[in-house]
Specification:
The chain is mainly alpha-helical. The chain has one domain (4-284). Helices cover 75% and strands 0% of the residues. The protein has twelve helices and no strands. The chain has helices at 4-10, 20-29, 37-59, 61-67, 80-124, 130-144, 149-170, 181-199, 210-236, 239-263, 267-274, 276-284. Helix 8 (181-199) runs antiparallel to helix 9 (210-236). It is globular and about 55 Å long. The chain starts with a helix and ends in a 6-residue tail after the last helix.
Length: 290
């Protein structure tokens, strides 16, 4: 039986803290009241995220035996069958929770979301379409929490941009980079995302200046938590620095989500999500987020 430590490594436990903020950002972007779905849809996102991490290790088990022998399958802590079973069970549970909490509307997004996660891990990851495929899963995750696709699309595209840069950078975390272009793209994506999070309109203008001020402050926190590591990776192109930049960008997603939520007028929820950032950073020192 899989022990808790092996499960935590398999599903990248610290990185799972970045999942709930997607649906909360989608809900906030459309002014959706934060009711029961506030708990259930983020839980759906987390389960599908965990499923994707387990499936990633199942799909990459041969490559990991050479490049990442510390991962649970090549280390002998998890069998391939266990990893695949975890992926199937968590995906099914996530879709079931989506149907329970949001009915047909949520299911209409959860099913493509789950399909996109599986398609990324099993088909697109090693192709030129890999970064776009991964970013698309985040875009759908944001839309999962939204009542209106049109209203939530700017927020979803902001998270898409951040994820695209992070995933592009992650391709060099084992062997390092031979070009500054990848690092430049990651930095540019982070800067663009932070500008949108800081300067975008608040959809609840009755709150006055507060959403903009808190959104801008949290966007600055996001930029500060992600950009320095990316700039270092861009300059050195060393594998270790790239890996640290990817880890910072993954956990830094929390800061971006918090800024987007606060800017949309849900200041308290944005600050609550931001409180997950130091926890994610602390956990990532014990369990790899990548």
């Amino acid at each position: 039986m899989m022990n808790p430590n092996a499960f935590a490594r398999l599903v990248r436990l610290p990185a799972a803290l970045t999942a709930p903020g997607d649906t909360l950002a989608g809900a906030a972007a459309t002014g959706r009241s934060l009711g029961p779905h506030t708990v259930l849809l983020p839980l759906c996102s987390t389960l599908i995220y965990w499923a994707g991490m387990a499936l990633n290790d199942y799909a990459d088990r041969a490559l990991d035996a050479v490049e990442r022998p510390e991962r649970p399958i090549p280390a002998g802590d998890v069998t391939p069958a266990e990893a695949l079973t975890v992926a199937i069970v968590l995906t099914t549970a996530g879709i079931g929770i989506a149907a329970l909490s949001g009915g047909r509307r949520a299911l209409a997004v959860a099913l493509p979301l789950a399909a996109s996660v599986w398609a990324y891990d099993l088909v697109f990851k090693s192709t030129p379409f890999g970064p776009v495929s991964m970013a698309a899963t985040r875009l759908l995750d944001v839309l999962l929490g939204a009542e209106s696709v049109r209203s939530a699309l700017p927020t979803a595209l902001t998270v898409f941009t951040h994820t695209l840069g992070t995933t592009t950078l992650s391709r060099d975390e084992v062997h390092g980079s031979t070009s500054t272009l990848v690092g430049t793209l990651a930095v540019a994506g982070t800067v663009c995302a932070s500008v949108v999070a800081a300067a975008g309109p608040a959809i609840r203008p009755t709150n006055g200046w507060l959403p903009r001020a808190v959104g801008a402050a949290l966007a600055t926190v996001y930029l500060g938590s992600v950009a320095p590591a990316q700039l270092r990776a861009r300059n050195t192109r060393a594998a270790g620095d790239v890996r640290r930049a990817v880890g910072a960008s993954v956990i830094g997603t929390i800061g971006l989500q918090a800024a987007l939520i606060a800017r949309s007028g849900f200041v308290g929820t944005g600050l609550a999500v931001a409180a997950l950032l130091p926890l994610g950073l602390r956990l990532s020192r014990k369990v790899s987020a990548t």
